[in-house]
Amino acid sequence: MQHASALLVIDMQNSLVAIAHRAAETVAVIAGLRERARAAGAPVVTIQHRGNGMEAGTEGWQIVPDLAPAADEQVVHKTSADSFLDTHLDKTLKALGVTEVVVTGFATEICVDTTARQALSHRYDVVLVADGHTTSVRPDSGDYVRPGQSIAHHNEIFRHIDFPGRNIRVLPASEVDFADPSVL
């Protein structure tokens, strides 16, 4: 079955990327995916969080320059971890004919995880880009696991989620091929 894929770029905003684990590497991976998606004619949807400390129009709220959406790309504004909740994301994806979302962004265990799971509930297939999501840098002490462990943990969970009727894959960016959806 052929899939119409869209690249989701979640919360890659100045304030968040400033505290991200492997920020430069993640931005570079997503930038490469954006180029490949655009070259293949696949839609890119940028999701931008707004809230306390992330007020619309501020420098910290802006998308990082390397991932700034083009004039013809869709931008969805959200106020929760769920990119579908009280937004036009589902309507936008349906209007574009999307059946599968390629998920990237910040933060792995919050907005990326929630949005990927909600995409499944909204009947989209999901590709979680294994090297295309990140989380915050943290102290080694405390209740949070280290960032690298959190990323690996979520990649592994998505490799094993059973969601009837949905196709879920975890792929490195190098294996995502927007030109040939059957490869996805």
TrEMBL record:
Domain (Isochorismatase-like) ranges: 5-136
Keywords linked to the UniProt accession: Hydrolase
InterPro entries: Isochorismatase-like_dom (IPR000868), Isochorismatase-like_hydrls (IPR050272), Isochorismatase-like_sf (IPR036380)
Protein name stated in the entry: Isochorismatase family protein
Protein species of origin: Streptomyces sp. 900116325
